[in-house]
Amino acid sequence: MTATTVPPAVPPAEGSAGDRPDRATASVRGSLPLRAEILRQLRRRRTIGVFAIIAVLPLVLLLAFWLGRDGTPSATPGFVDLAQESGANLTVFALFASTSFLVIVIVALFAGDTVPAEASWSSLRYLLAAPVRRERLLRQKLLVAALSSVVALVVLPAWTFVIGGLAYGFGPYVGPTGDQLPVTTFGLRLLVIVAYLIVDLAVVGAIAFAIGTRTDAPLAAVGGAVLIMIVCAILDSITALGSLRDALPGHYAYAWADALNPTVDPSQMITGALWSVGYTVVLLALSWWHFLRKDVTS
Where is this region: Disordered (predicted)? Predict the structure, then answer.
């Protein structure tokens, strides 16, 4: 009988089946990188359009003030009357004019479009089969939306201050009561204002994001969030509701104006921030709960 030769055992080579689980895990962890999502965001027409509007806004304001000047001073000047005093005043007026609608639309656009846009392109299910874990996809999309919103909210006043300063000078901020803030003091107060706006508008992003996890239509998510904020603003104008209005999103939208007083009283801003954070946490938790159980078909 011929002896059977048994070949020597060969150790698993690198990349063999024994190594596949680790590689699969690494693949999941490395999928949908944040950098790639940011680059995609920068190339989208909606992003270019938003920042184009921000770039043009102070120029439109300058043109409007130039065309509408009548030389008649107001007995009780407000943000509009003082907008041409300095770049700081134009910045405050731009924020005052955009708080009720423009910045709401910007935040809703970035947050509400991010998930349903993938569904409308029929790429969401392929992303989840890549494989990309659902919680990771939501986290990456939310981070990019939040980062885009923050950049927009920072660029708007900064760019307006530069354009206004070149047109009207970089003088002190002059308040409606005649109080003045030096440029350096105004710069610090502006940081507080922007920080508050970011926190206060987080609820808008959370509403849009929550709707976006439930629909495949980006317009429904963006428009739904804007519509909810409009309804809240209408309800907020009904004085018969009394203290119930305090709980409405957007009730403390203009609390940032307290940062322009000679002595800052942060109580309204703190209250508004707490309401916004509370709503945001609840809405994002509901978004995660729903999307992790959602039957994704698009």
Answer: 1-25
